[in-house]
UniProtKB/TrEMBL annotation:
Belongs to the BUD31 (G10) family. PANTHER family: PROTEIN BUD31 HOMOLOG (PTHR19411:SF0), PROTEIN BUD31-RELATED (PTHR19411). GO terms for biological process: mRNA splicing, via spliceosome. Keywords: Nucleus. It holds the Pfam family BUD31. The keyword Nucleus applies. This is Cell cycle control protein cwf14. The keyword Nucleus applies. Its main location: nucleus. It is found in: Nucleus. One of its GO terms (cellular component) is spliceosomal complex.
Length: 148
């Protein structure tokens, strides 16, 4: 049998969490709605797109609070990452040059594509034909190249 977790063993959130708790609750409610949404008459590859988009928005929110606005402390930022409020791997990519607008990690993994390259959404719009629609199959992104 697995060990029983008691509420007294959990570490309380650091100072400043109460300031952003309402916004994180809104993201949590959006995520629940996306998970419980009906998937009838929706193509199979589009079912998880809303979940990816909400996860991206929540991670971007935490990223901007810490790196751009400097509104939260390092301790709170680490706590948020540790407790799954943001995707640490995605944020690590955002800090690298050329990946500032990356939509999800699946778009840069070459193993999951047909031609062992990045996703179509990573191609700059300037290099695409004007009438060509860009839409990522894995997350629904319409273009996340940093040069756009």
């Amino acid at each position: 049998m697995p060990a029983i977790r008691h509420a007294s063993k959990r570490k309380a959130p650091p100072a400043g969490f109460s300031d952003i708790e309402d916004d994180l609750l809104i993201f949590s409610n959006k995520m629940k709605d996306a998970e419980n949404a009906s998937t009838t008459n929706v193509p199979r590859h589009k079912v998880h797109w809303p979940i990816f988009q909400i996860s991206h928005q929540r991670s971007r929110y935490v990223y901007e609070l810490y790196y751009e606005k400097e509104a939260i402390s390092k301790e709170l930022y680490d706590w948020l990452l540790k407790n799954g409020y943001a995707d640490a791997m995605l944020i690590a990519k955002w800090k690298k040059t050329g990946y500032e607008k990356l939509c999800c990690l699946r778009c840069v993994q070459t193993k999951e594509t047909n031609f062992n390259s990045t996703c179509i959404c990573r191609v700059p719009k300037a290099q695409m034909k004007e009438d060509q629609a860009i839409e990522c199959v894995s997350c629904g992104c319409r273009g996340c190249a940093s040069s756009d």
